[in-house]
Amino acid sequence: MKLQQFARTALALAGCSLAFSVWASGDKPLRVIVPGPAGGTVDIAARVIGQQVSADTGRPVIIENRPGATGSIGLSAMLKADPDGNTIALGPSNMLVEAPQVMKVPYDPLKDIVTIARVAYTSYALVSAADYPAKDFQSLVAHLKERKGKSSFASYGTGTVSQYSGLIFSSQAGLDMQHVAYTGSPQALQDVIGGQVDIMFDGMVTSLPLIKSGRLRPYAVAGKHRYRDLPDVPTMTELGYAEIQFQGQVCFYGSSKLPPDVLAKLQAVIGKAAAVPAVQQKLSDVGLEPDVNTDTAALLAENRQTSRRNAAIVKKFDIRAN
């Protein structure tokens, strides 16, 4: 019996060692799929961290852009690859906790995909054109109430935090605003600046440069804390809108079929690379808030909780994909 047990243990260890050696081998590059366009914020993050991983391990890292279908094209490509740790993805958490609430995806986002590591947060701000009549949050609410039923808010897509925030704000403040959905932030922000739409809840990555250049006015931050570069701008919670508390995450993802030792190795090398001060500075430079977490169980629990919250919002406001 002891001999059989030893043999089983030896075989298990051999399997783990083989899986590790496959991942650690320099024969194959580490392929990181980015479900977004080249030059975007997530793409930049992938290249910055990938370069550090390559420097730390001596292993080539290839970034592959697979945009479309709110991330499902890129995630599907990752899941079709062998679950040996040679192909992973980097993208925003909305791919797992927002998009599947309003569109059908060919995988279970919380069962088929494992979060390898979170590397950064993204925050959101309530903004208008810089020349909009309201100068602060209180005057904004008063102005929109005067125009009840005639004002509008933009979002960068149906079924996103950008829409959730606008709907909750309009409902709780009694504004009866019209939702105008776009297929991304750039065009939406241009129409806000141009006065075609009154306000928008947008990610800091795209709105902060326009705030700094004086083209947008920020009224509030829709996060847990005030944003580091806008210390005088209150949170929606401080202003009495505790339900408008959203924060996105930028994470590395892999197949849930990854061998445990391979997952651990990926977490070790990614965690180390993402924690390098120079890497974190580059992430900050593009509007992200560096925050490294490789606790798989905690990240899964957080995704489940966020997914349940989002599902409740979608149901309450009867949000449907276009």
Structure explained in plain terms:
Helices cover 45% and strands 20% of the residues. By secondary structure, the protein is of the alpha/beta class. The chain folds into two domains: 30-121 and 249-317, 3-Layer(aba) Sandwich (D-Maltodextrin-Binding Protein, domain 2), CATH 3.40.190; 124-244, 3-Layer(aba) Sandwich (D-Maltodextrin-Binding Protein, domain 2). The strands form two sheets. The protein has a six-stranded mixed beta sheet with strand order 2-1-3-10-4-11, sandwiched between helices. A five-stranded mixed beta sheet has the order 7-6-8-5-9. α2 (41-57) links the parallel β1 (30-34) and β2. α2 (41-57) packs across α10.
